[in-house]
Amino acid sequence: MIRDFHHFFAEVCCMENKLSLYILTDTHYLSRKMWEECEHINNREKGDQIAIKSTPQILRSFFKKIVEDKDTPYVLITGDLINNGDKISHQDFINELKMLTDAGKTVFVTAATHDYAGLGDDENIFSPVYYKKDGCERAERVYKTELPGIYFDFGHKYADSIDEESGSYSVSFPGGFRLIAIYDNGNGRSHCGLFDKGFLWLENEIDKAKAKGEWVFLAVHHPVIPPWPIYKDIAEFEMFGGYKRLREIMCEKGVRVIFTGHTHVHGIKKYEDSEGRFFYDITTSALPSAEGRMRKVVFDKEDGSCKVESIAIEKIDGFDTGGLSAREYIYSLNFIGLIEKSFPLIDTDWDKFTENVSRVANIPFLKKHPLISKAGIKLFLNLKMSLPARLGKKAGGITKDEIKRLKGVFLSDAVINIVSRVFSGNGPYPPETAEYKALTGSVIKAERLLKIFGFDINKLIPGEETVLETLKHFLYNDRTGDDEKITFMME
User: Fold this and answer.
1) Angle 196-202-207 (CA atoms, 0-180°, nearest 5)?
2) Total number of domains in the chain
3) 76, 100, 81: which is closest to 218 by C-alpha?
4) Domain membership of residue 419 as a residue range
């Protein structure tokens, strides 16, 4: 294989014994050639997690920051490169990558299920379309088997070894580092991972790297550790296919970190087995989302560490956001932002309110029973946090002063604050806050009261965790302490 990219940075990297790279994921790029300004593309964007129309400008805004960093030569993008498996978006996405390669960066990618259209070939459900004023028109698709070839210059070109079945590849870097990049398309939906042959290839590549004294890090699209346990319990097929086996391999062979995407959640999770062996699953949020970030990762053999930090953009260069910041603009399109800004419509335009809500969830009751619905929503919007505080006063350990303060806080604002932070990772209410005490205390009290009548609220959710344990995951970071950054030892 051609591995000429090393010569440019080899001398510096070997001398410093460091490897520095940027990691991005879920770029969901949609070429401007794929849509006209019309209700079809606007409806597709409203209530989604991503700003699909501005994906080219968002991508370039992040790339601009990467180009400005003269000390970081490598970029890794872990799947869902484009949005719906169309050929034109892939062509234009590769042209966008020239902004990085022209600046001397070497780019590696893996592909995922949004990057091709199965259309009966496997379980993949995506269908490429043009968004036009008179409707959606079928577009030319990319097949799963085409992806490694399309992105040859961004992976296989530099590979020491390739798993022909999946397209996964292994690359060594100067200074004693190795990336194993996994294509996890699998069967396109119910098993997005490796099969037996791929796992054997992976184990062999890890063994060879370890024998050379290389630090191994993995990259894949689907998560190996869920952002929260309930994610796996509700939709296990959204996990990496064979995630339990991959966990065992990483622990047994001492692989400390895997970089993932797919969930659109910015998170850092630690897995530890019964023998105390562990690794980190570091997932990065979707680039064109309100919480869009990229990671900068520095492996340093001098002190044995891996340092990870997060970088966002302040504005979307070349796109009219009406004076809003990148986050403000995308949040206004995001499902929770769309609902939040729709609350004033309850009294003035009920049809518009229900239309906006339908972008997120189909709730026929709202249209069938407008009077009851309006009354119920208004009641919720007028509730104060002092209500759960009083209910859970003893169980939550809340003081009188805290209850007094919570009289000025709307329950709806607290709920929106929690939900709006789901994708950014770090929740807003750590244990020392009055909101945490009120919400957890009220759940404890409600659980006790309902048990008197023979009802167990924990049966309302799947899995082994309780409602209280699940709630805590969303109130604050009870995982590693900070989803934005971490430093850990590689050996």
Assistant:
1) 130
2) 2
3) 76
4) 334-475
